[in-house]
Amino acid sequence: MGDFGRISVHHALGGGAVADILLWRNAYGGGALLIVSTIFWFLFERGGYNILAFVANNLLLLVVILFFWAKSATLLNRPLPPLPELDISEESVLIAADEMQVWINHAFSVAHDIAISGNLKTLIAVVSSLWLIAYVGSFFNFLTLIYIGVLMSLSIPFLYDMFQAQVDEKLVTVHKITNFIFRKADAILQMIPSTFHKQKTQ
User: Fold this and answer.
1) Residue-range domain boundaries for the chain
2) What single-letter DSSP state applies at residue 16?
3) Keyword Metal-binding, does the record have it (predicted)?
4) What's the predicted TM-score (pTM) here?
């Protein structure tokens, strides 16, 4: 394929700070995410620490520190704790709702394609994806899956950006093979009802 048709992975990932981290253009951000996720995984998975107890203990410590800081500040005429205004704006709620609406509508359209339209490609894609998630999930717990997802997010976009031409050639070959298989399956499934109908009329 060459460079013709090459897409910008940075632009496809949103082109912001998250894309910089995932593509390691912000090396400090990517390294910090990798180190923090590794520490969390080691603490909760290998160290046997309970995530609920960790969150509760840290919140308890934070609340006690803030309380005594505020009391000592009033007694010693010191400034109060520099807490930001803890208020969620209506705009951020609307943005989150719009994002959720897009995902929910997409899920409904997929369900419609399977249940009403009888789309074989969508059915096979959904069934294979759910089976793969269930199969992989049987080997790991949820926290390990999240950690693997972080590692893949920090490696796959970076490697694809470096070797996009070679990967695209392989993906085009796989796409042609899957299209051929789907066409054969569609032809077989279209022959089945007509065969049953002929047998019934005879």
Assistant:
1) 9-161
2) S
3) no
4) 0.60
